[in-house]
Amino acid sequence: MTSIGATKLGLWSLIMASTSITQITNLGISGSVVKFVAKYHARNELHNISLLIQTSLITIAIVSGSAIILLYPFFKILLTSFVDKTNITDAYILLPYAMLSLWLNMIGSIYQSAVDGLQKVYAKNVSLTICQLIHLVTCFTLIPTFGIFGLIVAQLGQNLLVLFICMIITKKHVHELPIIPILINKNILKEIIPYGAGFQLISISQLLCDPVTKTILSKFGGLGMVAYFEMASKIVLQFRAIIINSNQVLVPTIAYVYEKTSHNIRSMYQLNYDIVFYISVPVFSLLIGMTPVISVIWLGRYTTNFVLISLMLIVSSFINLLSGPAYFSNLGTGKIKWNLISHIIIAIVNLVFGILLGFVFGGYGVILAWCVALSAGSYLLQHNYNKEYLLNLSYIVPTQSRLLFILSIVSSGLILLSYYYFEDKVSLWTLIILSLFIFIVFVLPMFWKHPLRKFIYSSARTDLIKKEFSY
Questions:
Q1: Band of the pLDDT at 270, cuts 50, 70, 90?
Q2: Is 135 a domain residue?
Q3: Can you tell me the distance from the alpha carbon of 91 to that of 448, in angstroms, rounded to the nearest whole number?
Q4: In a domain, 352, yes or no
Q5: Which domain, by its residues, includes 271?
Q6: How many structural domains comprise the chain?
Q7: How much of the chain, in percent, has pLDDT values that exceed 70?
Q8: Is the residue at 80 inside a domain?
Q9: Most buried of 183, 281, 388, 417, CB within 10 angstroms?
Q10: DSSP percent split of the chain into helix, strand, coil, nearest 5
Q11: Are 16 and 96 in contact (CB under 8 A)?
Q12: Are 187 and 286 found together in one domain?
């Protein structure tokens, strides 16, 4: 942060968010690849898998590449409207790198989807984790010397590495797949594009949120606040991704159970929701309590903007996380109507209230609007799912986890109070130890005694769920 500066980091974040709308040109193909690779893999039709991947890669490369070239002048005009004159030259320099990064990411998503369809999710997740660690090391190595361009090199390097590794994993299982795609099949193209249309609508709604939020935030809060928003989001998303990924893996299992015994979907959802709640509550409560400490470690000092933004994002992300079991259950059963409605509501509320609250409260108003939009859309999805499966409102906090929920809230409050009381009296390491001690005393005993701990520990979750609900 010191080497780059909040302004330049915010500028890069804004450019990446703005240009991300070009991802709508993937036509939902990456979502289709998962389904059709799995279909052909089950039939042992490796030749069709090769044709599917090549067709998808060529289509994405040409369509998205052309769109990026055509939209380049538009993005320059857009940046002129939202970036002040002192930073516009830097914005023009960074723009091509951002668009190249997105293009590589879209191509890499095809290989990632192919790996998912081949049911090699574990290999992909391990590879992505390694890539993230390499990216982190590269950032620490290059940024002090090269500043923002060190970050760009690290970003492009990560995209290329992910693409290359997922390509190797795919080729290992599909020997016919060439390193450079050369074939395109019209019949496969006609098959995958209609299927991806529904997912594409959801993707469009998702893509509009981040650039809209950061664009409005840059207008009412400045690039510095965009940088703090970006950094806080990264932290929250890393913790959220750990839990979300475990849910995402269940989609094919849910589809399997739905085909065999659809009446067990309700019980399966309850179990999945209980597990998500049980894990999320302690994790996010500790994250809330440690936010001031994270600010000191990451930024070198306590920064009010970062802490307040982080707290708002943590709460809204927790609410969003609780809708995950319903969201992925709908994907597994094919009932994606409320998933789409939820995303549309989030996008509209974020845009309208972002502008309105931005005028009244500045940057904080924009972030508050995003948090309200995310929470409202997530709650609506969960509420309608619970209504469909006759689950009452009280189930939002499962009975067996209520005491854990209360103690986690108390723990967060005490950790925050201890920081503000002792921050000038003791060292940072003492504060960290004290915070962990409070968490261990209040939360760990209930977490350890919880009946779900043994369930999670004693079994491979996905296989056990399939066994329990498939007969």
A1: confident
A2: yes
A3: 50
A4: yes
A5: 221-471
A6: 2
A7: 82
A8: yes
A9: 281
A10: 85, 0, 15
A11: no
A12: no
